[in-house]
């Protein structure tokens, strides 16, 4: 189930994990690199380093996969990594 499928009162509870995210104090642009190469690759690596120490990393990744986040670093994964993961799941079904 996606958080957007929930009634408005339950959406807030479903997203409560965000308050504990390690990225709260980081520059949001770091998590949305312009390109997967060059400087963008370095930004994604820095974002992933922040994710590596995050206590809600798994929940963040579940959110990204469940809501089909097409851009950015979520749960320590880039959009390309999530796309590959989704394709592997689809191929295994």
Description of the molecule:
It is a single chain. This protein has 93 residues and is mainly α. The protein has one domain. Helix content is 48%, strand content 0%. The longest helix has 14 residues, at 39-52. The two termini are 18 Å apart.
Set out the fold topology.
Layout: H1 8-14, H2 39-52, H3 57-66, H4 79-92
Keywords:
mainly alpha
Detail the poorly predicted runs.
none
Termini gap: 18 Å
**Mean residue pLDDT:** 87
Strand content: under 5%
Q: What's the story with the biggest beta sheet?
A: none
Helix and strand pattern: HHHH
How many strands in all?
Answer: 0
Shape annotation: globular
Q: How many domains? A: 1
Please tally the helical runs, counting DSSP H or I stretches of 4 or more residues: 4
Helix content: 40-55%
**Pairing-aware structural class of the strands and helices?**
mainly alpha
Radius of gyration: 14 Å
Q: What does this entry show, briefly?
A:
The protein is mainly alpha-helical and 93 residues long.
């Amino acid at each position: 189930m996606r958080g957007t499928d929930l009634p408005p009162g339950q959406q807030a509870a479903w997203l409560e994990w965000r308050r504990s995210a390690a990225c709260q104090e980081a520059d949001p642009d770091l998590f949305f690199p312009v390109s997967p190469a060059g400087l963008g690759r370095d930004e994604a690596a820095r974002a992933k380093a922040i994710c590596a120490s995050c206590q809600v990393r798994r929940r963040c990744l579940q959110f990204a996969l469940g809501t089909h986040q097409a851009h950015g670093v979520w749960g320590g994964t880039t959009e390309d990594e999530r796309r590959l993961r989704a394709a592997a799941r689809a191929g295994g079904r």
